[in-house]
Each structure stands twice: as structure tokens, then as C-alpha cells.
Amino acid sequence: MTASATQAPPSRQGGALDTLNTRLHKVGLRVFLVIVLAHWAEHLVQAMQIYILGWPVPEARGVLGIPFPWLVTSEWMHYGYALVMLVGFIVLRPGFTGKSRTWWNVTLGIQVWHHFEHLLLLLQALTGAYLAGNAVPTSIIQLFAPRVELHLFYNALVTIPMVVAMVLHTRISKEDDPSVRCTCALQA
Questions:
Q1: What is the value of pTM for the model shown?
Q2: Per residue in 101-154, pLDDT tens?
Q3: In this structure, is residue 83 part of a structural domain?
Q4: Which domain holds residue 131?
């Protein structure tokens, strides 16, 4: 793959997407990272509730699920988060170039699948027709792995290349890559 294949395409001057991927890219990435980390915290607390505190899975609802138990059982909430993540990866993508763009694309591809799995879960919840005759909405990979562990895995699979992309992105400057359009590079 040539370097030009991973370059950010020229964008419309002055539009909101252009502003987000130039002048506000650093802020956008930080806000997005906070959303990702908050979601991670929910999954890690849920895992701690199950594996350290010994709570039964239905009672292990993470942080927000304790005061709002319907959040954990709402496929709409889970789908909404998967959609927000997908949109975030798409909207912030034009600001990436070179190797960081490649890693961001990997993350985007994984999130496309993760989003599909949540769409499948939502459709099952709405129709009452469950995959493989199960009693509850079930994703494809959930046929082979329990849901709690699967979502920890999915989040790791999405987050690791995302962090690699962000680190690489902060290490590049206009001197290294003239196609860089934002100010995310670390200042020495």
C-alpha cells in the first residue's frame, strides 16, 4: 500500500467536518477518548462485580446500571453506544494520515462489526425472534462466548488499535507529513 492510499482526502473548506478534523481535531479526539474510557469503566466495574465481588451476572450492572438497572437490559442503550462509536470513528477519520490512518481504519473496521452485532441484538429485542432459538437476544459471537467476556474482548479489540492510531497521530508533524491538517502533534 502506498503512502498516498492512506492520506486524508481533501475536504470542503470551512465546513463543520473540516473544522472538526483540523482546528478542533485534538478536542474531538479527547472528547471521544473520554466516552470510550467511560464505557470501559462500566465494563471493568461489571467484571469486577462478577469475578472479584462474586455477584451473579444479572446483578452485576456496572456503575450506571446500579441506579438505573434498565440501562443494562436495554438493547437500545447498547446499540446507541455502538452507533455513537461508529459515527465517532467515521467523523474523526479525515484528520488522520499515514500509519495513524491505517490503525484508525482497522479500528473502524472492527467497530463496523461490533455495530452490526448490536444491530442484530436490537432487532431481536424488537421482534422477539432470537438467534439460534435462544431465550434472549444473542449476537453471532455470543453463540461461542459469554456476553460479559465478549464485550470486554470487543472493547479491547476496538480500543487497542484506536490508542495506537492516536499515539502515532500525535507523533507526526507537518514537517514529517505535509498532508497533516490538525494540531494534534505533541509540542516539544
A1: 0.86
A2: 999 999 999 999 999 999 999 999 999 999 999 999 999 999 999 999 999 999
A3: yes
A4: 16-170
| Number of domain units in the chain | 1
Tell me the per-residue pLDDT of 64-83, one tens digit each, with 9 for 90 and over. Answer: 999 999 888 899 999 999 99
Cα separation values, 79 from 116, 142, 182, Å: 9, 16, 31
Give the whole-angstrom CA distance, residue 53 versus residue 42. Answer: 15
Give the Å distances, CA to CA, from 117 to 21, 72, 111, 139, 186: 28, 16, 10, 5, 36
Q: Is 13 exposed, middle or buried (0-12, 13-18, 19+ CB in 10 A)?
A: exposed
In a domain, 6, yes or no: no
Backbone CA torsion sign across 33, 39, 41, 44: negative
